[in-house]
Structure formats: C-alpha cells, structure tokens
Amino acid sequence: MNPVVAYSVTPLATRHVFAVSLVFTSRIDAPELYLPTWIAGSYMLRDFARHIVRMAAVTESGDALTLTPLGQSNWRVACAAGQTVRVDYEVFAHDTSVRTAFLDGSGGFFNGTSLFVGVPHLADAVHTLRLHAPECDWQIATTLPRASATPARGFGDYVARDYDELVDHPVRMGALTWLTFEAAGTPHEVAIAGHVPLLNRALLTKDLQAICAAQIEFFGAPAPFERYLFMVDARSSGYGGLEHRDSTALLCQRDDLPLASDALERREPYLNFLALCSHEYFHAWNVKRIKPAAFVPYDLSAPADTSLLWFFEGVTSYYDDLFLRRTAILTETQYLKRLTTTLNQVTQADGARTQTVADSGFYAWTKYYQTSPNTPNAVVSYYTKGALVAWCMDLHIRRASAQQHSLDDVMRDLWAAFGRDFYTPNHPQKGVILADIVAACVRVAPDMAAVLTQMLYSTDDLPLVELCAANGLNLTQEPANTPVLGATVNKADGGYQITRVANHGAAQQAGLAPDDVLIAFDQLKLTQPPEATLARYPLNHAITVHFWRDDALNHTILHNAPAPHGAYQLTAVQSVQKE
Q: How confident is the model over 153-157, as a mean pLDDT?
C-alpha cells in the first residue's frame, strides 16, 4: 500500500528545534489536524502544541492554504478532497523527561505525540517518517520498522501501519553506547545516551537478560514483539520511565548504572534502575496489550477513564521487584525490605486514609500529576497502593487455593483472553474492564470479588497482617518512638523552608505551614536539618520555634513527638519462594 501520510524530521540542534514537514492527500474537504494533548503512560494534559513555534500549509504547487485554529491543539486546513497538502512547522524541544522531546548538540529524543501533527480522518492509513541526518556522527535508536534502504541504527526512512503505531515508537539520536543480547530467542538492545565510561557492560547485560527471559517465560514464549529496545538517557540527575509496545524510554543518573567496580555487589541505586527496567518491560504485556477498554482506541485529545490504573500500574509495580527476586538479583532479605518500604510509604501518609486507590487512578489527571503542598494528606499513589493491593490479591489467592494458584494465573488468563493477539492484523482489539479482572480472580479464588471491592473502594486498612500470616510471613507494626517534624523541608537562606506539612504531626499541631522558614529552636539558630536537632530533645519536650512567614518574624511552641503512625516490619517464617 502506498503511504498516505508522510512526515520528515530535521534536527536543528543549535536552536533546540525539530523542523517537521507533514504531507498528505486529503480524502475530505477541509480536513482537521491535531496534536495530542497527552501521551499514553503519563496521565496529565501536557498541551504539546504549546511548543510549536510556527506552522504553515501549502498546496503541492506551493500555494498558501489557510490554517484556522479550532482550539489550542487542532486546526482546519482550507483544502478540497483529493488535494495534496504540505504542512511545515517547528517544535521547540528542551525537556529531558521521557514524555516529550529534547534536542541539543549532544543528541536528541522525541515521542511522536510531541512532534507529529495528526490527520484524524487518515489515522488508519500507512504513515512514513524520514529522519534527516545532521552534520555530525549520530546514530538512531528506535524500533519503528525501517525501509530496506535505511541502514541499521541509521537516519533514513521508517514506516508505521497507522498513526497509533507511529507515536508508540520514540526515537533517540546521538552518539550512543550499545549493548545487545537475546532473551528467549528475541533480540534485545540497550542504547545509552550520555557519558558512561565506567559502565559495567557485562553485569547490566546479564541482569537485563535474566529479567527479560523470566518475563517472556512467565507469559509464554514467543515474546509479543520481534525485538525490544531499552533507550537509556544517563544524566547527572533525573529518574523515570515510559513504556511503549516494544521499547521503553528511561531516564536515570549516571551512578544508577552498574560500575566496573560493582562486580561483587549490586548497589541500591542500580537495583532501583533494574526495577524500573523490569517495570517498563512488564508493561509490554500489561497495558500495551492487556489494555484497559478506555484505551481501545486511545483518544489522545482528552482525558480517558483511568480508574483501572491500580491494576495496570499497581500490579506492574508489584511484579517489577518480584521478577528481581525470581531471577535472584534480589535476595530474600532485600525483597522483603523493599516490600516493607512500600507498605510504610503508603501507610505513614494520610492520603491512604483519605482517597481510595480506584479514585487515585480516576483523578490522576488533576490530583496525582498536579501536586500541591497537601498532596500527601489527600492523595494515595496508584503505583504503591496498587502494588499493595496486588500483593494482597496474590496472598489471598494462594491461601484460598491451598497454594495451588496465585496472581500469576490471573495475569496469564488475561493475557490469553485479551493481550496475546491484540496487535495481530485483522484481529479485533478488545480492552479489559473491571469485571474481566474480577472474573479472572474468581476462577482461582471464588470469594475474591468481595475482597477486591473492599480494597478498591474503601480506605480501610488492607488485610496484610492476616494474609501474610497465612503465607509464611510475619508482619508486625511497631509504634514510632523517634521524634519527627511532621513536615518536609528544603534548605533556604537563613534556615529551612517547609514544603509540605503532614496531618496530625508535630508541625501541624504547632500551626506551622508550607513556605514558613524555620530559623531557630529555643533561640538557637538551626545549623542542621530540623529533625537532626529534634533528635537531641526528649519526646514531648516543648520547643520554641522561630520562623519567617511572609517576611515577618513569628514564633510558636512545638511539642517534640514521634510520627503518628508506626512502622511495619516484615520477616519470613518460611522461605519466600522465587517461582
């Protein structure tokens, strides 16, 4: 089939701009164009069109066509059906996150949702992309299928079956460090942007290969993709990942990667990076193919129903560390410690007692992604609380089935019913609703429906103590006995500025508020973080706190107190199985 929609992209590195040209032959009069307002995997309206510098449309012969804005992210072209149109525009790219686009003299990266103005009535047509090379020795990393004349890792021509496939294949360009391996017979690549002279290539390759092979085996070979690519941006700061159907874009600190000196021990930052890789890789099954019905198809112009994020992100968060344990990258002690950290992270903030995990996903657009100083008191993370729900589901199914079944069976059931053939040509694409998840659970644990409803739609404590005891784990909660401020602070001129105040903590009881700058305890200047100073006082001691508020000097009495919620401890009564 001849392509109907064609893009070309030229990187203009000194201006941090991608020059884009779109050519299409319209099938209708006065077609509409649009640029997405959000990207799959990150549930916030980002208004990518704000980065378009200029835009103009012309006919095939070069005559100007009127572009009429219909909103902030869509336009109408004054052309007739059958007419060929070229739209030229530039996109400013200086965001180093994995969600948008970035370009400078060292390299570039983009998601299609940031660059490719779409033609809705041609969304199902073949889309092509021509990448023009800059005058430097850069390579290309992408899993977008390339034309036969385009060299591997090279600039040139690429092709997608439709617009959705086009924007689900990000592109990294620059001087890249490459690793390659096979997992379950499927080629995998790692393309690292950034200066990593001390990289322990062998360890990173070994660990990623083990994780990938284990996940492919979990769902059943062959893998649902012909090849897979980890695109890693190693910088001085930053952390994050975004999943795509056969690749992932990752951002990490350079020291998160394994160093040549790490041969005998995996450092905690590296374990966190491997967990991130495991998380995004698992998404190739769970959310990219086992997909919520609200995403079939994606409507990237408006918010979607994201109330199932507890499953698609939370369950994925549960399995990311679990696969590190199953591959022996984590020891049993390390794994239990990480589970405990997640549990304490959720239970020690009031958000878990205020918002349900189902609401956390539904309101992600306005509450989770648009934070305020009160966020920890009002919002629970669908990642962490969702991971705890997944843990409960797993433990409950194991107990109810006398250890004959687990959450693994639910995932494989959903994979067979919804995911395996999702991108198979001419196969109907069907998304998952909550009833499908419940049905898969009930098949292995008949009483699961009521249990799951309680966990998703209430803020009651999860039944983890009871479920752990039934599965060879001992979970206890000890009262807090260390003094804490009950607020987060940043170092500021002359003191420490409060950014957030926790409910029921010492700072809130003392009347302190976000933006207050703490300068003295008992008339002595704060020369170290407040909690380090509080540790010198006995519990319940009354401390006079001086602080600036709106440039006016204030004081209050703070009663030195521990956190209102104790910390959990998790130990194994019997060995935690790795299967």
A: 97
Please compute the mean of the pLDDT values over residues 546-573 and round it to a whole number: 95
Asked if residues 201 and 192 have their Cβ atoms less than 8 Å apart, the reply is no
- Residue 225: predicted pLDDT: 97
Residue 545: phi, psi to the nearest 5? -110, 125
The answer to whether 460 and 336 are in contact (CB under 8 A) is no
The mean per-residue pLDDT over the stretch 147-171 comes to 97
Q: Which residues have a Cβ under 8 Å from the Cβ of 227 and sit 6 or more positions away?
A: 143, 186, 187, 188, 189, 246
| DSSP-derived 3-state class of residue 172 | strand
Q: Determine how β-strand 240-243 pairs with β-strand 247-253.
A: antiparallel
Q: How many CB atoms lie within 10 A of CB 4?
A: 17
Interacting residues of 315 by C-beta distance below 8 A, sequence separation 6+: 286, 386, 387, 390, 407, 411
| Cα separation, 38 vs 241, whole angstroms | 15
Rounded to the nearest 5 percent, the helix, strand and coil shares of the chain are 30, 30, 40
Strands 483-484 and 561-562: antiparallel
pLDDT, the chain, mean: 96
The Cα 122–Cα 24 span in angstroms is: 9
At 37, is the secondary structure helix, strand, or coil? coil
Q: Which two tokens stand for residue 112?
A: 């299609």
* Torsion angles phi and psi, residue 133, rounded to 5: -80, 140
DSSP 538: P
pLDDT of residue 1: 47
The three-state secondary structure class of 324 is: helix
How many Å apart are CA 313 and CA 276, to the nearest integer? 12
CA angle 171, 165, 289 (to 5 degrees): 110
At 159 the three-state DSSP class reads strand
* Domains located in the chain, CATH noted: 5-171 (2.60.40.3650), 175-268 (3.30.2010), 285-476 (1.10.390.10), 483-562 (2.30.42.10)
Q: How far apart are CA 425 and CA 163, in angstroms?
A: 15
Residue 404, helix vs strand vs coil: coil
